[in-house]
Every structure is written in C-alpha cells, then in structure tokens.
Design goal:
alpha/beta; Rossmann fold; 2 domains; 7-stranded mixed β-sheet; two-stranded antiparallel ribbon; 9 strands; elongated
Length: about 300
C-alpha cells in the first residue's frame, strides 16, 4: 500500500464519521504521517512510497479508533495550542479554541502585571501555564491540578517547551496546595481557571468523543455547573484578600451573571469584566480595584 492509496482509504473511511468538528482530510493525513513516522511535507513529497506492514497496521488501527469516536488528539497523543504542540492523554482535557481565549485573557492581565503570581487552576496538560510562562518570563507561574497523571503530562510539556524552571506544578485541590508565602505582598495575582462548568444534566447529551473519552472529573460541575467555580472564588477571597486579583473563568453564558454576583459578595470591590463570547461559551474576567475589562 502506498502513501497515496492509504490516504484515499483513510479519507473514505473517515468521511462517514459523525463526531462534531471531525475533518476526514486532516485526520487521515495526521494518522498516516504518525503511522509512517513522516512529516506532512515528506509524506506529500513521496506519495508513491510504500508503507511497511507494521505501518499499515498502525494506520488502520488509528482509523478504527477514530471511527469509535476516540478523539484524534488522544490517538496521536498531541494537540496544538497557541502555535505550540503539547502532549495530551486521557488524563487531560484537549485544548480547544475557548482555552486559547482563557489564555489570551490571562495574558492581557499579565501584560499589565509582568511580575504577577500566575495560577493555572485545573492545569491538565499545562498548556496555559506553559504559554504564560513563555510569554512572561518574570512572572511566577504555578499549575495546579488534583490529578497526578495530568501533572506528569504538564511537567513533560513544560520541559519540552523549555520553561520547566519558570513553570512549576503541584497536586492541589484548587488553591488548597498554595502556601501563604506564594503571593508576595503587593504582587498582583492572575488566576486562569479552566474548570469543569457543565451542569450534570448536560453530560449525557455531549458528543461521544467528549462524554466517553475525556475525563469526567474535568467535565461535571454539579447541578448548575458552578460548584468548583464557587469554591475557587471562596478560596481566592481567603488567600488573596487585598491583592490586585484578576480571575479568568470559562463558563456558559447563562452562568456568568450569577457567578459574578457571587464573586462580588465574596470579594469586596471585585468588578465584573467583559464577557468574551466564543461559540456559545463565554470567558469572564472578574478584576479587582477598578481595573479595565480584559478586552
């Protein structure tokens, strides 16, 4: 079987795939290049090259797994985020466009406070922490996650992108793993939290590639989806009282107003930032001490 023949077979098989956002052409190329151990450019330059028996087996196995709704990122073990390739695993969520919006909103706050303490809560693959550590070398960046397997992946990504000394990772239930000395007096605090926010009743209706493969611990946010978000805000109010606090959360649009009201009660002086909408998701930034909205 040549590369050209394999690509035709892959596209045909994947063309009947019904997962949201699936792309038969892109995924067939991705699986073929991974199975053959070639870059996309090398594969396209030699379409008549023959696949070995082992390479054919791997390629067809990838197609079969994708047809069973397994996300392509888990199949190949990597995903792209802000122009960088990150390792991912079933212990981590797959970065999405909304995750990039969270990172951009946090970066806007960091640009005003380059020496900030930056906390990536629910860090998963560590993509947000790595991105911010690379962009703001003077910031102190800490990724927090309750899952040891996710932290292992995050540390590997930090090392791969050469920020292993600037981004550290801790096993922590939200902010519980922080010490009182982590935030120096007068230092701004930027919290980027890509937490589970889906109401429990929504989980069964998710696409199978999300519902059946991504970690449920990172999806189910309780009856109204805000259980962890409220806990995070309560912890932030206790640990960073008086600090210049910037909080960025990914939410459903209808969750923003009640959570902003809750935050204002917990953290006096907190002002609700602008809602950044993206395909039915919103990213809300709650900013302390009269700071301007994120965008």
């Amino acid at each position: 079987m040549t590369l050209r023949e394999a690509l035709i077979i892959g596209r045909k098989e994947l063309s009947g795939h019904r997962c949201p956002d699936s792309d038969p052409d892109r995924e067939a190329e991705l699986f073929l290049c991974r199975a053959a151990g070639l870059s996309r450019e090398a594969a396209l330059a030699a379409p008549e090259a023959e696949l070995s028996g082992a390479q054919q087996k791997h390629f067809l196995a990838y197609i079969k797994r994708r047809l069973a709704h397994e996300p392509a990122a888990y199949i190949v073990g990597t995903a792209w985020f802000q122009g960088r390739e990150f390792s991912v695993s079933p212990a981590t969520l797959i970065p999405r466009p909304a995750t990039e919006t969270v990172a951009d909103a946090a970066a806007a706050a960091c640009a005003r406070h380059p020496l900030a303490l930056v906390l990536d809560v629910g860090t998963g693959s560590g993509c947000v922490a790595v991105y911010l550590a690379a962009a703001f070398p003077e910031a102190r960046v800490i990724g927090l996650d309750v899952a040891a397997a996710a932290l292992k992946t995050a540390r590997r990504n930090a090392a791969a992108h050469r920020v292993g000394r600037r981004a550290t990772f801790r096993r922590s239930d939200l902010l519980a793993g922080l010490s009182r000395t982590d935030a120096a007096p007068g230092r701004a605090v930027v919290i980027a939290a890509n937490l589970l926010y889906l109401p429990s009743a929504m989980i069964s209706g998710l696409a199978p590639e999300v519902r059946d493969f991504e970690p449920r611990i990172a999806l189910d946010g309780g009856p109204d989806g805000l259980d962890l978000c409220r806990r995070l805000i309560g912890q932030a109010a206790d640990r960073f009282a008086g600090a210049d606090l910037h909080l960025v959360l990914e939410l459903l649009p209808e969750q923003y107003a009640p959570l902003a009201a809750f935050a204002r009660k917990k953290i006096p002086g907190l002002k609700a930032g602008r809602i950044l909408n993206l395909s039915g998701i919103c990213v809300g930034a709650a900013l302390r001490r009269g700071c301007a909205a994120v965008r």
